[in-house]
Amino acid sequence: MIRFISAFAAMMALATAAHGQILDPETLQAPVDGSVASWIIRTFGLLTVLSVAPGILIMVTSFPRFIIAFAILRAGMGLATTPANMILVSLSLFMTFYVMAPTFDQAWEKGVSPLLENQISEQEAIALVSDPFREFMLVNTRPKDLTLFIDIAEERNQATQSEGKIDMRVLVPAFMISEIRRGFEIGFLVVLPFLVIDLVVATITMSMGMMMLPPTAISLPFKILFFVLVDGWNLLVGSLIRSFV
Questions:
Q1: 16 falls in which pLDDT band (50, 70, 90)?
Q2: Which residues contact 195 (CB under 8 A, 6 or more apart)?
């Protein structure tokens, strides 16, 4: 877990102008040599990085696909608050750690660890940490979505590459809309069997003249039973994890 947090902290430096986010015990200690301005900037940069951690987690990892699929599953089953949001978010978070573990390890070994040992500079560490995330996003981004943002950037005379690599300003939004699209695709496949159950129950209740009884109240136990019998959580979680390259 420490590796995950440290890798994220280094990755988040891409979105800030401050540098030197080394998690040293002396980071938050006030200086005694009079360099108060430097200490304030360093502390402010560290706090800024920590505050944007949730946003970075959503932008450059597999988290969106998981949470979208789980949210659509809950809505399709007709359950308003079960499982609770905390459970779905926690499950999505740890599944994200599972899928992103190789990427985090590469970021730690190539960028964070040498930086903590003062072997490389902060600028070099940022580039080395971002490379594994860039590779992950490139593999899981649709070419059509990537082409869209490249074309828009070129229309506005903006750079699409940095040092021979696709710029993060182009890659991150393309990756996000690709993940959202795949999340909805998986959600559609998940919710389709529940829709069939709702239609069957609604047809039966209407034919019996049960106009005052909501069909969803009758179909809910059948949908839960169906999901349990097919071992739905195992199938869904396994399919979501295997959907990443």
A1: very low
A2: 76
With 70 as the cut, is the pLDDT of residue 33 above it?
no
Cα 94 from chain centroid (whole Å): 11
Segment 191-208 mean pLDDT = 85
Inter-CA distances, 230 with 65, 157, 189, 200, 236, Å: 22, 53, 14, 19, 10
Q: What is the pLDDT of residues 112-154, one digit of tens each?
A: 777 777 777 777 777 788 888 888 888 888 889 888 888 888 8
Look at the block and give the residue holding tokens 């998940």.
190
What's the rounded Cα separation, in Å, for the pair 133 and 127? Answer: 10
DSSP 23-70: --TTTTSPPSSS-HHHHHHHHHHHHHHHHTHHHHHHHHSSHHHHHHHH
Q: By CB neighbour count within 10 A (0-12 exposed, 13-18 middle, 19+ buried), where does 17 fall?
A: exposed
Tell me how far apart the alpha carbons of residues 152 and 214 are, in angstroms, rounded to a whole number: 49
Q: Which of 14, 225, 174 is nearest to 107 (CA)?
A: 14
Residue 27: predicted pLDDT: 46
Total Cβ atoms within 10 A of residue 91: 16
Asked whether 102 and 123 are in contact (CB, 8 A), the reply is: no
- Cβ-in-10-Å burial (0-12, 13-18, 19+) of 102 comes to exposed
pLDDT value, residue 36: 62
Tokens of 56: 């970075």
- Neighbour count for residue 223 (Cβ, 10 Å): 22
Q: Answer whether 45's CB lies under 8 Å from 16's CB.
A: yes
